[in-house]
Amino acid sequence: MKIYDGVSGRVGPILSSLVFCVACSCGDPEPSPGGGGLSDQFETTPEQSPIAAGIIDEASGLAASATMPGYLWTVQDSGQPNSLYLISKDGKTIKEYNVPGSNNHDWEEVAVGPGPDNGVSYAYIADIGNNNQPVTSTNTIYRIPEIKGTDGSFSQSALQKITFSYPDGARDAEALIVDPVTKDIFVLSKEAQTNIYRLPFPQSTSETIVAEKIGAVPGVLFATAATISRDGSEIMVRTYTNGFIPAVYYWKRSNGETVGQTLVKSANKTLTVESEPQGEAICFENDGKGFYTLSEKANAASVSLNYYKRK
Predict the structure, then answer these.
(1) Which of 48, 67, 150, 249 has CB 3.0 to 4.6 Å from 267, enough for a Cys bridge?
(2) Of 230, 229, 225, 233, which Cα lies nearest the Cα of 262?
């Protein structure tokens, strides 16, 4: 594990004020899709927290930790370490945790959700990018229990490997959703037509799964990230289009509706967000009060962690 100070960018000791262990009391969320009466209005000007350059310049996914309030997980894509990075929500502290037994071919997304053991929160690392050579015929999703404190570490013995292929040939993808209600995994392809693929729970960790093609997301091009609220009632998908202009699409999931049934319908609305150098990450806050975005640095001098409050 490496600890970075977000201001100086130096590797240093763990500050005693940041060393704590939070018992995981999250459990599996109650199934309450339908919006929960929350507003679908969000601020268009975010609260911005600068991210020091040189540590996570290739951030390609984002997820709120369920075991450590005040922190978010991110990953970096191809050519970067096989590590999860923990970011404080003020952007000032970034901590790197190696995931032993994994390989970063092209990590493009991270999600937090339930899994095979009830009451355990898992990090899902999606090695699903496929725009580099060699193109792979199978892709991998790593699943591992979240650590419960900033002084923890990941164990190779706890790592699970979900290997899958597409029913219609190799795909490039950067967006993944873990349904907190059903524990199904959904992968959204990064194409002119955003296809939806489902890996139903329980996912095999010993054989290659052939994903089920659900359909396509209407009007969404080149999806770069996705997120679902902790109760499963809201979904967002972000993209970038010409000139990396961002678009965030928002759905409210109806009662009794699956994630696939929600996403094959047109989004309820498109949200206005700040332009970013190369936005490839989005996640809901666990408390439902807003959502975060993060970008790769690309050619910019630096990036910021952006938080959009719910109105």
Answers:
(1) 249
(2) 233
Strands laid side by side in the 234-240 sheet: 223-228, 234-240, 246-252, 269-271
* Sequence letter at residue 8: S
Nearest to 20 by CA among 92, 72, 68, 63: 68
Neighbouring-strand partners of residue 284: 291
> Looking up tokens 């396509």, which residue turns up?
216
Q: How many CA atoms lie within 13 A of 244 on its CB side?
A: 13
Express each pLDDT in 92-116 by its tens digit.
999 999 999 999 999 999 999 999 9
- At 234, the amino acid letter reads E
> Per the structure block, which two tokens stand in for 184?
């199904």
Calculate the dihedral angle through the C-alpha atoms of 107, 108, 114, 120, rounding to the nearest 10 degrees: 40
**Residue closest to 206 by CA, chosen among 167, 156, 162:** 162
Which tokens sit at 136? 């792979």
Report the chain's mean pLDDT, rounded to a whole number: 89
Euclidean distance between CA atoms 131 and 208, whole angstroms: 21
44-48, 81-85, 90-94, 238-242: lowest mean pLDDT where?
Answer: 238-242
pTM of the entire predicted model: 0.89
